[in-house]
From TrEMBL, chain A:
Residues 1-216 form the FAD-binding PCMH-type domain. This is FAD binding domain-containing protein. InterPro entries: CO_DH_flav_C, CO_DH_flav_C_dom_sf, Diverse_Substr_Oxidored, FAD-bd_PCMH, FAD-bd_PCMH-like_sf, FAD-bd_PCMH_sub1, FAD-bd_PCMH_sub2, Mopterin_DH_FAD-bd. It comes from the Bacteria. Keywords: FAD, Flavoprotein.
From TrEMBL, chain B:
Residues 5-81 form the 2Fe-2S ferredoxin-type domain. It comes from Paracoccus rhizosphaerae. This is 2Fe-2S iron-sulfur cluster-binding protein. The keyword Oxidoreductase applies. SUPFAM superfamilies: 2Fe-2S ferredoxin-like, CO dehydrogenase ISP C-domain like.
Amino acid sequence: MKAFDYARATDLSDAIGASGCLIAGGTNLLDLMKLEVETPSALVDITRIGLNEIVPEGDGLRIGALVTNAACAADPAVRRGWPLLSRAILAGASPQLRNKATTAGNLCQRTRCSYFMDNRSACNKRQPGSGCAAIGGINRNHAILGTSDACIATYPGDMAVALAALGAQVEIEGPGGTRHIPVADFHRLPGEDPSRDNVLEVGEVITAVLLPAPVEARQIYRKVRDRASYAFALVSVAAVLRMQDGAIAQAKLAFGGVAHKPWIDPRVDSLLVGETPSKALFDKAADLLLEGAEGQGGNDFKIPLARRTLAAVLAEATAE
Amino acid sequence: MAQSPAARIAVNGVTYEFDGDVRRSLLDFLRRDLGLTGTKKGCDHGQCGACTVMVNGRRINSCLSLAVMHDGDEVTTIEGLGAADNLSALQKAFVSHDGFQCGYCTPGQICSAAAMMEEIREGWPSFASEDVAGRVHLDDEEIRERMSGNLCRCGAYANILTAIKEVMESGAKP
């Protein structure tokens, strides 16, 4: 690990505009620092600045940026009103990691592309302009939607997939003030500049995630992975779906493991609403979702896997 | 903002001052600086769980945590749970059920299990829970899922499960 200066922030103002790299749980950052994929010259420890409570806000919830994943998943209000969020968090990592990892850190976690994590490999995300060793390499875990010639990495998390389906917002404080953006718009597609995972600007700090009022709907998170536990998603589907009089009255879907961000496709949600559930309908939804999907060889299986996972989730969500 | 502050860290009830290299992990602090070698270094990347300790009662991977960030924290290691002449209930159960072969993962397994029992007591759900909003219905699947952050390359999982269940069912202090 490269040497760095360490400073301990005492309040949020120390973190906003800080010249160092912010560290809280550190479960991803320190791993990458050991690999010297991340080499910050200074760390600012923000674990003592508060932002670690879950409180009601309107009919929704404010989840502080530094609430641990474990605390969020175990929170009685989250479990009652937004069980999808608990379920998705509990699908990720291990209990030890969830006890350290924070809400904001989880959003900012980096891809687990093995070429990104190996300094000897070409990687446009780690070293812009060096190429992408995953294209034509071992790419079993890589993206099938929204890729570019520069990067086919996936966003690895589960929590953000649930938050995208729930319509949550990220609250961001910066030197210029506060802004709110939907979680679904927080992460970027790689395009020409895969080095940027998300839309955070230099000096900005995530202060909270805001959940809208709970909806009376079925909430499902299904994650398909290589092991039964403690593995990243090959494909995951988060669904918030409400039935009325035998038809789908409301549908919000988000997909993990398939793209550089939690993937949402409002056309798929619209296609489902007002329709009576059937295998033909689920096929049409999958066709639309995957019409632009592209395999890279090793991950070709993700296309039929996403189709089947979507069908399974829709069948479960619409069952009598 | 405090530049390069030191840290006062309580380990198994004794408070130590840490003023070393800020790169030092909590794991290396415990093993190298304090000589508490019960906590093991396996992967050093948060994947195996051999380095599991409790910080303020919660289990974490001590390899993925900087010692300097633990100012004011209370750390419990395997040495704080039991000793050779005074084994804890979990240690006794691991011995009596052969919950290990080489033993390298065992301190992490036991620290993890002790903290897991507290999580269950507080009603935390897991991915194996049928209803995350409901009461925890404890079965083998629940324990396996909750212990998934601790790998055992000897594959002693079946006996680890038996040992943990015995202590949980007895209601003994872990």
